[in-house]
Amino acid sequence: MQYSLNLGDIYAILTAICWSCGVICFDIAGRVLNSLQISLLKNIVGVLGFVGFLLLQGDLFPVFTQHDYFILVVSGLIGVALGDLLFLSSLRRIGSGLSAIISTSYSVSIFILAYIMYQELISVFAYFGGALVISGVIVGTMESPANRTPRDIYIGTFYGFLAHFFTAYSVLLLRPVMESHPVVPIALVRFSTGIIFSAAAIVYLNGYSELRETLSKGFGHVYLLAGSFLGTFLSVIFWLSGYKYTLAGRAAIYNQLSTIFIIILAAIFLKEVMTTKKWAAVSLALAGALIVSIY
User: Fold this and answer.
1) What is the DSSP letter of 165?
2) How far apart (Å, rounded) are the C-alpha atoms in residues 73 and 191?
3) Per residue in 185-220, pLDDT tens?
4) Cα–Cα distance measured from residue 250 to residue 187, given in angstroms and rounded to the nearest whole number
5) Of 40, 98, 175, 220, which sees the most CB atoms within 10 A?
6) 58: which DSSP letter?
7) What gap in Å lies between CA 294 and CA 22, rounded to an integer?
8) Would you put residue 119 in left (φ > 0), alpha (ψ -120 to 50) or beta?
9) Using the 8-state DSSP alphabet, how is residue 218 labeled?
């Protein structure tokens, strides 16, 4: 037995850290825009970051085949566009507490889909570590949704499971493309697809004036921009890199640590109380991550 944290594992952990910091920035920014507007803005910042990264590196845009572009666009539609909409719809119906618990289905979806699509297996101990991480998330976020009807809970739960399943499927679709191409151009095409869909949805629902207001108000908000930079640009690069350089099951388990990091950061920056239940959640999740690293 030895501690074996590989490069992909580190990227997956950095994903959780960056995403958690992004969530805190969004929380501090407040509810200045609705969910669809925030989704559009964070995707725009991400794409601008990806373009800037490629320009600074001086890298030529890779030559994708028609099949590659098809995979990238489908992944963007399923994961960025449809997945985000389902997640936001679920969040409105069931609230953040239950939504965080449902997010643990992401790891399970990765385990199942990685086996079906690529016959990928991880050790029994790694599954045990994953179960500890998921248990920590459940303990740390469990709360009864207030003022929610049974119908809202049922529909919201269903949408939440679908959202995380689609997100898992969308990233695993990219694996063959990531084997021969760098992750930043892949992210650029993927999130550009999300921008087109989100912008079209805003215009369709509320007109061009809503789109103009979204851009003017959003790009003047420091915390929203910071959250977009951390939660979309950096975290997506690390997220895709994690799946490129380590097993999908291991990456998913480390990604799940984001909820635990959010609990810790919320206590530090938002002055939320660290209860005994939250400390237990952090301990379980960190123990699970350690077991995954060892085995």
Assistant:
1) H
2) 9
3) 999 999 999 999 989 999 998 899 999 988 888 888
4) 21
5) 40
6) T
7) 29
8) left
9) H
Residue ranges of the chain whose pLDDT lies below 70: 1-4, 30-31, 95-98, 141-146, 293-295
Task: Classify burial at 147, counting beta carbons within 10 Å of its beta carbon; exposed 0-12, middle 13-18, buried 19 or more.
Answer: exposed
Residues listed for the chain: 295
Secondary element (H or E) of residue 250: helix 248-255
Tell me the HSE value of 129 on the side-chain side, using a 13 A CA sphere. 23
Structural contact between residues 216 and 17, judged by C-beta atoms closer than 8 angstroms: no
- Tokens encoding 188: 């650029």
Per-residue pLDDT of 69-99, as tens digits, reads 999 999 999 998 888 778 878 877 876 666 7
User: In terms of Cα–Cα distance, which of 37, 140, 137, 47 is closest to 88?
Assistant: 37
User: Residue 18 in contact with residue 242, Cβ under 8 Å?
Assistant: no
